[in-house]
Amino acid sequence: MTGDSGRVALATLHAHLHQLLPRASLVATSLPGVPSLSLWLLQDTLGAEPLAPETINALMDAPPYWSFCWASGQVLAQQILARPECVAGKIVLDVGSGSGVVAIAAARAGAARVLACDLDPVARTAIALNAQENGVVLEIIADMHDALPVAEVITAADILYDRDNLSLLETFRTAPTILLADSRIPDLDPPGYRRLGEFTATTWPDLGESQQYNCVRLFAVAT
Asked: What are the pLDDT digits (tens) for 14-59?
């Protein structure tokens, strides 16, 4: 990370994080599943001491999800980098971008334009910082709907933790190509989506989640 904008973004993220975890810090972290990418993630010290009940409640109400690289994001980023032809030269819309890992991978793989969408303004700050860390340019947006008509590829990873988001899978069908990764719904079989396979990955830093959430299923739609 270099430049004043990066330092300001990091200070903003730390200020937000400290409202939940006063001793927490973010560190630039090479990803276990995608070592060519580095993200500013929560330092792996959560298990060092018990959390107060009020801290646990605050984390449940407003989790800093952008400070983790979730298993599905790692898998989808890895697959994009391994098969850059799926995004190269295309306009990519990454929905529920979080840390920005999938959007960053798409930019690294040669996408012509990458729009990283997240409703959370703090996540958007994290995406900008992580894009700078990896030397890529992203367009960071809050509302996907204006981008849907231009998107040639839509990517999404672990957005189905909220079952209300299942309707998005039909909304995405406006794009010629969709790449979806999920570890939350074991029996997911969305109409029109082709299952490409299952992969093993761990959210980083490791939350110690049930092993079922380490199984990532990858789906695609291509027209």
From this structure: 999 988 888 889 999 999 999 999 999 998 655 555 556 666 566 6
More confident residue, 223 or 8: 8
Query: Read out DSSP for the chain?
Result: --SHHHHHHHHHHHHHHHHH-TT--EEEEE-SS-TT-EEEEE-S-GGGSPPPHHHHHHHHHS--GGGSB-HHHHHHHHHHHH-GGGTTTSEEEEES-TT-HHHHHHHHTT-SEEEEE-S-HHHHHHHHHHHHHTT---EEES-STTTTTT-SEEEEES-TTSGGGGGHHHHGGGSSEEEEEESS-TT---TTPEEEEEEE---BS-----GGGGEEEEEEEE-
Domain that includes residue 178, residue range: 1-223
How many domains, the chain?
1
- CATH for 158: 3.40.50.150
pLDDT at 161: 87
- pLDDT tens digits, 58-99: 665 678 999 999 999 999 999 999 999 999 999 999 999 999
pTM of the entire predicted model? 0.93
